[in-house]
Amino acid sequence: MTTERFPWAGLLALAMTGFICILTETIPAGLLLQIGDGLGVSEALAGQLVTLYALGSLLAAIPITTVTRGWRRRPLLLMCILGFLVFNTVTTLSSNYLLTLGARFFAGVSAGVLWGMIAGYARRMVPESRKGRAMAVAMVGTPLALALGVPAGTLLGTLVGWRSIFGIMSLLALMLVAWVVWKLPDYPGEAPDKRLPLYKVFVIPGVRPVLFVVLAWVLAHNILYTYIAPYLTQAGLTQRVDLILLIFGITALVGIWIIGILIDRKLRPLVLISLVAFALSSIVLGISSSQIMIYLVVAVWGLTFGGAATLLQTAVAEAAGESADMAQSMLVMAWNLAIGGGGVMGGILIETVGVRSFPLALFILLILALLVAWQAKEYGFPSRKR
Fold first, then answer.
1. Residue range 110-126: average pLDDT?
2. What pTM was computed for the model?
């Protein structure tokens, strides 16, 4: 396939959609202190802005995906992007904690539907031989948001106020609407005779191992990522949150580039290597208080987690076959359950035993994910894509 025929513009529109999703989801992590002061709540309560966003995605992903399976894809995508425009604007203007939580919840609803669509949309835009590459391009918005958006947003939020960041995200959503109308092709929804019941999709061999790995891996990630500012404070790096997030994001970008090159041949080894490296990094966090080691661990963390979404979405799509969209909605549910669980569990750990308990919690979760991925040799995480 030539460069001219590869649908870069459409795939990058999907990547921009993911960029806005991730930025909206994660920007509170770097601004917990400012958001807490602005809304008159504690850091733990400010962290629940992440939790409510995840809860919205969690509750919306499966039921709304089920209801909209037959809808044409582009109008549904545009409705969700407009949801970001509306609810980020509410967050920008709100000074009420409960209203802000409500806006975050409904922004999460939009995200839950979007994440169930992006992978399937990208795979439909290219032939079989380019599906892995297309997914890598469509998912590049995630590491770009982490590498550039979150650090820049954290720095800008510190300088001019956290509300301005949500206002900027509303403007980005408005621009994306025009981009999608201009460049993204439309596709029909799923045909009625292809719609398996939810439980039948769930029991397809390989789907459940992927969902478990999603739950454990992303939970470990979000315990640390949601409360990265308090964790860095105890390490004496209070003024380096933006730099730490930048390092994480840049290495995540490198990670997804590597995944894009190798995923069609090395799906299972990439998953196993990523989990092992993250688990070893958690051990280092637990035994070393060196600031230099923290920088190195964050770099490895970003490198191994950057391609996680692409790896896991590809694995569940390969396992589910024609029911990939429904399986993706289950993955979205598991992913956002883990995000919400990270906010809740991290908050509980902070309030009870402190942030120094994070490394052990991460290690246990990652070892469980590694064991399940190792056992799923034929389905879910095959040695080669089937």
1. 87
2. 0.77
